[in-house]
Amino acid sequence: MGRLDDKVILITGAARGQGATEARQASAEGAYVLVTDVLDDLGGAVASEVGGTYHRLDVTSSGEWKSVVAQVVDTHGRIDGLVNKAGVFRHDTLLDDNEDNFRLITEVNQYGVFNGMAAVAPVMRDQGSGSIVNISSIAGMRGHRSIAYVASKWAVRGMTKSAAAQLGKYNVRVNSVHPGAIETDMLFDLGAETVDRLVDAVPMGRSAKPEEVGNVVMFLLADESSYVSGAEIVVDGALIAG
Predict the structure, then answer these.
(1) How far apart are CA 115 and CA 92, in angstroms?
(2) In a domain, 204, yes or no
(3) How far is CA 152 from the centre of its chain?
(4) Which residues span the domain enclosing 127?
(5) Would residue 200 count as lying in a domain?
(6) What is the pLDDT of residues 114-164, one digit of tens each?
(7) What is the CATH number of the domain that holds 176?
(8) Is position 227 annotated as part of the catalytic site?
C-alpha cells in the first residue's frame, strides 16, 4: 500500500531534475502521474518510466492549463494533487538591464503557479478534496542577489497562503515548499565556486538530494497531512535558520 494509492497527481516541470524525481516518488507511492513540461522527449520518457501520461504544458498559458486539466478530468474524473514545480532562474541585479529577465521569471515562476492553482481549484472544489504544493525557494524567505527570482518566489509564498485561506472550506489544502541547495542542474549551473560557498554555509554541512525535497512533497500530497494548509516548509539543512 502506498500513501498516494489511486490518487491522480499532476506535476509541472517534471521532465527532469526535482520534478522528475517527484514524479517517480509519487508513482512509487501508488499515484497515477501526469507529467507536464515543454521538453517533450524528456517528459515523455519520464511518463513512460512511471507508467503515467505526458502532456505538453506551457505554464504561462492559461489556455493550455484549461485544456490539460479538462483532458485529465475527462480521462480520470478527478485531480487529487498538483505540484507546481516548473520554474526558471536567471542572474540579475537592480543595476542590470534586467527587464526581459524579470518578465520571463515572473511569467513562469509566479504567473505559472497562479495559472495552475486557478485551473485545478474548481475541480478540487467540486470533488471536495485536493492538495496543491507550490515549490518556492529559500529565496522566498529572504533576500538574494537575483531580484526577479526573489520577487517570484516571495509571490509564490504569498499566493499559497491566500489560496489556502480561500479553498480551506472546500477541504482543499495549499502549501509551499522552500528548498535550499538541492543537487539539480539549477544548483550546478551556478558554478563550482558558488556551489562550494553555498554548501559551506549550510549548518548540516551538505547539499540535499532531490528526493529529500520530494519526501516533503509526498507528505503534503498524502492524507497524513490532512490538517496542514497554508504552511511554508523549508528544506535547507538550517541554511536560513541563523
Answers:
(1) 25
(2) no
(3) 13
(4) 8-181+211-234
(5) no
(6) 999 999 999 999 999 999 999 999 999 998 778 999 999 999 999 999 999
(7) 3.40.50.720
(8) no
Catalytic entry in 54, 149, 170, 227:
149
CA dihedral 29, 122, 70, 110 (to 10 degrees): -80
Beta bridge partners of 133: 83, 175
**What is the number of domains present in the chain?**
1
Q: Is residue 125 part of a domain?
A: yes
3-state helix, strand, coil in the chain (%, to 5): 50, 15, 35
Which amino acid, residue 151? A
Average pLDDT of 31-36? 98
* 203 assigned to some structural domain: no
The rounded Cα 159 to chain-centroid distance in angstroms is 13
Count, in order, helices (H) and strands (E) of the chain.
9, 7
Q: What is the pTM of this model?
A: 0.95
CB–CB of 86/110 below 8 Å?
no
Give pairs for 157-162: CB < 8 Å, separation 24+. Answer: 157/232, 159/110, 159/113, 159/114, 159/117, 159/134, 160/132, 160/134, 160/136, 160/230, 160/232, 161/230
Count other C-beta atoms under 10 Å from residue 223's C-beta.
12
